[in-house]
Amino acid sequence: MIKKISNQFLSSYLFVFLLTTMVTTLAVVLLSFASGLIEGRLVKERYPARAIIKEDYTQIDASAVVKNGGGVQVVNKDYQVVYSEGLDTIGKSQLSAEEFTAFLMESSDQPYHYDIVYQPQGEYWLIVTFPTSIRLSFSVVHNPAAVPDDMAMASKVIAAISLIYLTILALLASGYSRFMAAQITEPLHQLSEGTRLLRAGDYSARVDLKLKNEFANLQETFNDMAARIEQEMTLRKKSENDRRRLILDISHDLKNPLASIQGYTELCMKKKDLSEQERREYLQAIYQNSHRANLLLADLFELSQMDSPQFLLKPVEIEVCEYLRQICGALIPPLEQAGFQYEFDIPEKNIPVRLDPPRFSRIFQNLTDNAVRYNRPGTVISVSLREEKADVVICFADDGCGIPNHLVEDIFKPFVRVDDARNSKTGGSGLGLAIAKKIARAHQGDLTLDIKYNNGSAFMIRIPKI
Predict the structure, then answer these.
(1) In this structure, what CATH number is given to the domain that contains residue 277?
(2) For position 61, what pLDDT does the model report?
(3) Given 239, 248, 325, 355, which residue has the most CB atoms within 10 angstroms?
């Protein structure tokens, strides 16, 4: 592609070279024509020396020449200026032979036009002078009677000069075409290389063209696209890792209870002399493990439901303070049974919100289950409510063991537990906080962990006010 663009530029500039050659030739012709056209219309052509010369210079009428800004001088055979009217560029009354010769030879280089005629009868030179307005001295003259050697030499010189001119013009056109092509092909090469790196899997590839033209916009677009692809691939990789971890966690959490169920069932089937006490213990173990597996599957089903487009809340307008008081009342029995203490700080206000009461109460149920499961009896559970601009913030806190620092970022992910050993005695599916957070977000709010809370743990439930 780059080679083709370079060739296109070269072809374009070669075409420009040909046009330039044609225009130069036309300019030569036009200059020659213009020179003749101007020469024929200037005032000096209307009053030439031959038109006013007389045998006796005293009879010369110079009034028309002087009237039009010119001058008339007469120089005799002794190089004396014997007559002068109007414009005088000689400035002397007596010239030497060398001075007069120099005047005749250098007159074409002066900003004046001199028309000089010799009168043989009167033995004098008549000089008619006009100021030069503009001089176009270019003309092409050919005389067939010229000496052949001179003609040949002149032709060679003209041909050589023309060849040199055309060569320089061609080199400039070629060099400039390559320079201009490089201004496009080099950025394209860098963009192509960046695209190749992206295709090869290097999503950190960026392009720095150091330009401020349209390629700069293309560079920004490319870099933005690369950054988005890198971000998406990072998220995709993270999602894939989370998916693998989720599958492993599900397998692990289902394997243990199912293996226990299978083992105790086999014992019941194979051991013929089971006592009533043993039979009850085995059945109790089967029941507990099946309950554990069923709880895990129910939570997984609920979590997958929330990720489904068909998942819909049934929100109603409700007064959140009164609703929260009812929730706290329902939390008291399980907290007292677990030996926990509690503190509630709910203002006497009328703050309307829209929420799905059964779904939203699941947040408090899950938070309470976690607090009871991972903390010792005597732990204090506190629930408070405050307003923040357009939101209502509910704080569910405890003064228990808290959340380890290494779990703060991942605590709301599925199967993340404070108990790293995944101890079955603590119970739970490891999905409670993930479900609670999804429910909060479904209400256009959020569930977060207050990392500034030093004594135990504090979860902040935020929902918008009406």
Answers:
(1) 1.10.287.130
(2) 93
(3) 355
